[in-house]
Amino acid sequence: xxxxxDNAIxxxxxDNATLTELGxxxxxxxxSDAAVQRAxxxxxxxxxxxxxxxxxxxxxxxxxxxxxxxxxxxxxxxxNLHRHKMILGTGAxxxxxxxxxxxxxxxxxxxxxxxxxxxxAWQNAQMLQYLLAKHGIAxxxxxxxxxxxxxxxxxxxxxxxxxxxxxxxxxxxxxxxIPPQRTDTGCFLIAEVxxxxxxxxxxxxxxxxxxxxxxxxxxxxxxxxxxxxLLTRDLDDLVVERAVLELMLNARNIRxxxxxxxxxxxxxxxxxxxEPVGSTIFNAADGDAA
Length: 290
Description:
Order of helices and strands: EEHHEHEHHEHEHEEEEHHEHE
Radius of gyration: 22 Å
Number of helices: 10
């Protein structure tokens, strides 16, 4: 610590001699410099929890269906607690769609819609926690994620609401007024930052189709496809938020995501065991094969 003019205290900067070459470039250069940004790629991304599986339970597809759909999924989660560590995220579902419609009609901005949608996802997470309470499964807000590894090691699973914690800071979409990064995106980001083993989405269909199978009887199931091919096809309807596909292109840890039918008992277990059930979207940038 040094004293400057008028005895003002000045903090001593880092000794550049002790820094790595990258450290010196970061300290002396601009963080917007393209060459500096490329230099940061040299260090691989550390997978913090490579043994955990992130499982997103659909809001409209599972939670909104009540006991008949939620009960069997909960039973399957419990049956896997001793075999697979899981971060369980929840979607928002129909109630969020209703609040979006009212908020849009009132002219409220995207960030406010995100706050309202987060509240619904939080409610679903709370309900899931109560259903799993007797197994000691806790619900954590993003602020409590520092304790997440402890809960996983002790109880095998932890619950979170799926919305990313942007809230008022959600970016505006290119088109329309609906928050572009919702619960599918939030769960994907959790999987990516922790370097998870798998990212599994539990829906009410067998995965990805060429169109919405509920509306188009001619829709064809797509068991496996690259994210690059899927984006090129530009389908009108997708089983996952488009923001997730865009994030996959730059993901460091999550190279594929899988979709299973939660209304079919055993599909979640099969996915956790590494079986090719449902649909898989993978990143072909590194030469992955279909």
